[in-house]
Structures are given as C-alpha cells and as structure tokens.
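<goal> How does this chain fold?
<sample>
Here is the protein in question

***
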Amino acid sequence: MLFSRSLTLAVLGCALLVGGCDRETTADKQPAAGTEAAQAAGGELTGTIDRSRKGSELPEFTLRDAAGNKVELSSFKGKPLLINLWATWCAPCVAELPMLNQLAKEREGQMKVLTISQDLPPADKVAQFLKARGADRLEPWLDLDGELTVQYKLSILPTTIYYDSQGREVWRFVGGHDWTNAETKAMLAEGK
C-alpha cells in the first residue's frame, strides 16, 4: 500500500513537472492568494477542449474530505456533473475558482460542480484555502493519493471533465478556462 501510494505520487509529480500547470515558474514563485496574483504569475485562462473520450463512463471512485466524509462519484448521476481537478499551488486553477463558484451558484439544482484537489497533505489546507477565497459553493474534496489523476491520465492542471446526467463523458477542458462566458454556456448545453 505504501509503495503503491509512493509510486502514484511519483508518477503524478513527474507528469505535472513535464506538462504541468505552471511549468515556467518554480513552486516558490507561485501565488498563495487570489485571482490577480494568480494571473500575474502566469495563471492565464487558456486551454483546449478535448472530445476524444466522449461517451466514457464516470469512473468508480470514492472522494473524501479532511473530516473523513466520503462520497461516491456515481452518486452524482441523474444530472450533469462538472469535475474540476485542481491544486492550491496551480495559478490557473486558483484563477478559475471564483468563476467555478459562480457557475455552481447559477446552476445549483441543475448541475453539480465538483472540485477535487490534487494537493498533498495536510488535507485541511484545501478547505481553508477555499474559505479564504470566498468559494462558498465549492466543496473541499480531495484526491490525496493521486488515484483520480492516474485514472484520468492527467498531465496538466486544471483539467475539467463534463459528464451528462447518465454519467457519460461529454468533453474535458485541459487548462484554465473562463467558466462565466458565452462559450461555456454553449459547451454545457452539449450534455443533458
């Protein structure tokens, strides 16, 4: 188990170093606070949409938070689901948070916005990070072992995967995105 976790974390670390979120700056130069700082440190919201996995099933996965609460991804079937994989040290991820929070507020009851942190322990830092940024609609779910990152074969954060109400992938967006613009509205209309 320990070897498996270490291997998973090593693979995740290598993948993010090769194609990661903020590859032109070092971790100590990445911002620890709000959107303006994130954009100044290279948190531009440019990314690409990928429809190559359209129709793929929602993976069987159990999320947890710092308090030990658990939820199965499959429990979100029945309405569209937007899964955002992010980290506190990722400038474009931080830049997206207010927009994802707004989207969660606007689409409450119609669609679930699920943010899943890829941060390493301590787990309670994610909840504090979201609270400090006023992200009151985003829950602090965690992927501490990097298993979901491996499942999705991610090399770039943020990556956002959109599922229809039957739990079938519609598209994924790799990199930062403005989740409040007209393009987003059209993209979300693709999955019911």
